[in-house]
Design a protein that fits this description.
globular; alpha+beta; 4-stranded antiparallel β-sheet; single chain
């Protein structure tokens, strides 16, 4: 079972590649930025930071138009 309020998800071509959960929003935001550098060149890469408590998507990369 995952723990932590903030989830970062990496998908490629619509399929999940990696997920992580953190208790701190600041740490999760830092991890999402790092994962852009590490996984951003995957086909159709998308990185999403979600607040699991509220269900709110806090940020996505690339940004939606």
């Amino acid at each position: 079972m995952a723990s932590g309020r903030y989830r970062v998800t990496v998908t490629s071509a619509g399929q999940p590649v990696m997920r992580g959960w953190w208790g701190s929003e600041a740490v999760a935001r830092d991890k999402s930025r790092r994962w852009i550098g590490e996984y951003g060149d995957l086909p159709d890469a998308r990185i999403t930071l979600t607040d699991e408590e509220t269900g709110t998507v806090l940020t996505t990369w690339p940004e939606e138009p």
